TrEMBL record:
Keyword Hydrolase: yes
Protein name: Phosphotriesterase
Binding of Zn(2+) 2, residues: K132, H165, H194
Species: Streptomyces guryensis
InterPro entries recorded: Metal_Hydrolase, Phosphotriesterase
Obligatory cofactor(s): a divalent metal cation
Length: 303
């Protein structure tokens, strides 16, 4: 069986991903972001095209179930912009959903994840390529444990990688303890997101030593006070021998953050972050973090 990355247009070889934004959003809506939703397909296409013009080739959208991911629109956008797009299944923190929506999933969450990974999302025919879940601030509450148990079941059934939102960048080791130590998910199938938001070099190194992927994303208006530390954190990890565990993403979550709406958006990753990292890591390793690493992180032997 050959490893492949599951995109919205079908499975592709890891080496065909090219330059990858490993954590971003084309569409996203939540009660936590009233009036700032990513819901405009024309703007989403323009953003993808701007990313492509900057040298980008693929985007992994971490928007999970029930948060306006608009799976049916993704193949059209991917073709039009000439950019590979990976779609997520999964579930975010409870605050992003109504009680009614969560009640609909009781007792069948893992089945929903597996179905969206293998059969497709609704009537769109689009199959998800990752499971996205979320932890809490320095802890895992009942909701987080419920979603991660379901994600682990989905992984064991399909091989899918699990991408984890770390609240304020915290709780990485708690996630590892649950998903890997208790639930048997191989560490190299776990992607820890937002590590730049809590620049704890000890925890970052421990997570890397455990074998997880470390995703650094931004810039973020809410977390700009830690954004500037990211290059040095990435450099420290690379010097410690963990350059092969690093991923980079933009994490555009509100309309005003898009480059086509006046924000940094997806192109910022290549326009500003890439040359900044090249000063710390060198061109060779920076290119590997943007190309080879995502191919290895998101490619699996699908079951």
């Amino acid at each position: 069986m050959v490893s492949s990355v599951r995109t919205v247009l079908g499975d592709v070889r890891p080496e065909d991903l090219g330059v990858c934004d490993a954590h971003d959003h084309l569409f996203l809506s939540s009660p936590q972001l009233p009036g700032r939703e990513l819901g405009d397909a024309t703007a989403a296409r323009a953003e993808l095209e701007a990313f492509r013009a900057a040298g980008g080739s693929s985007v992994v959208q971490w928007t999970p179930w029930g948060m306006g991911r608009r799976a049916a629109d993704l193949p059209l956008l991917s073709r039009a912009a000439g950019v590979h797009v990976v779609c997520a299944t999964g579930l975010h923190q409870a605050a992003h959903y109504t009680t009614q929506l969560l009640d609909e999933l009781r007792g069948r969450l893992a089945d929903v994840f597996v179905s969206e990974l293998t059969e497709g999302i609704g009537t769109s025919g689009v199959r998800a390529g990752i499971v996205k879940v979320a932890g809490g601030f320095h802890a895992l509450d009942t909701h987080a444990r419920w979603t991660m148990i379901a994600a682990a079941e989905a992984h064991h059934a399909t091989g899918a990688p699990i991408a984890v939102h770390l609240e304020m960048g915290t709780g990485a080791l708690d996630v590892f303890d649950l998903l890997c130590s208790e639930l048997g998910v191989p560490p190299h199938r776990v992607i820890l997101g937002h590590l730049n938001r809590s620049p704890d070099l000890v925890v970052q190194r421990q997570a890397a030593e455990a074998g997880c992927w470390l995703a650094f994303d931004g810039p973020s208006r809410a977390h700009h006070t830690t954004d500037w530390r990211m290059p040095r954190a990435v450099q420290a990890l690379a010097e410690a021998g963990f350059g092969h565990r690093l991923l980079l993403g933009g994490d555009t979550v509100v309309a005003g953050a898009r480059s086509v709406d006046g924000g940094p958006g997806m192109p910022y990753l290549l326009r500003r972050v890439r040359p900044r990292l090249a000063l710390e890591l060198g061109e060779e390793l920076t290119n590997r973090v943007l190309t080879e690493n995502p191919g290895r992180a998101f490619a699996v032997e699908w079951r």
